[in-house]
């Protein structure tokens, strides 16, 4: 069943649209903190790297970075899904797109989590 009237984020349905907006708001917050730490607070790449290592040894910061990764992934892949839904409007294509992006999300989220956990175990210089 083709739905020619659904384009952009409307094709994602109300829940997909709502989650896109919510993750967008969270991204403003998370990205603001990340940019502040990276560019204003530390400024120098070596000091920033050391600060990130120190932060990742703190459970709250580790959780912050992991949640940030999940939100960035969801927001980005949900946006890609909306774009692809505009191009491919058959149910079979949309099912393949949704499945493929879901697998990509899970694999990337697992990798990001394992990477954050591994980096959190690096000794601070």
From TrEMBL:
* Membrane-spanning intervals of the chain: 12-38, 58-80, 101-124
Instruction: Indicate where this protein resides in the cell.
Output: Membrane
Q: Name one GO molecular function term.
A: metal ion binding
**Keyword Zinc on this protein?**
no
User: What keywords sit in the KW lines?
Assistant: Heme, Iron, Membrane, Metal-binding, Transmembrane, Transmembrane helix
GO CC annotation: membrane
Say where the protein is mainly found. Answer: membrane
**Which Pfam families does this chain map to?**
Sdh_cyt (PF01127)
The record's annotation in Gene3D superfamilies points to: Fumarate reductase/succinate dehydrogenase, transmembrane subunit (1.20.1300.10)
The protein depicted here goes by the name Succinate dehydrogenase
Source organism: Acidiplasma aeolicum
């Amino acid at each position: 069943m083709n739905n020619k009237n659904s384009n952009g984020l409307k094709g994602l349905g109300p829940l997909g649209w709502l989650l896109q907006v919510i993750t967008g708001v969270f991204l403003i917050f998370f990205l603001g903190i990340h940019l502040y730490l990276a560019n204003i607070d530390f400024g120098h790449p070596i000091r920033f790297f050391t600060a990130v290592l120190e932060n990742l040894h703190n459970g709250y910061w580790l959780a912050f970075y992991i949640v940030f990764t999940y939100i960035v992934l969801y927001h980005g892949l949900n946006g890609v899904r909306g774009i692809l839904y505009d191009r491919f409007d058959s149910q079979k294509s949309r099912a393949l797109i949704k499945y493929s992006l879901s697998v990509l999300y899970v694999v990337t989220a697992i990798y990001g989590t394992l990477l954050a956990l591994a980096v959190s175990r690096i000794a601070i210089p």
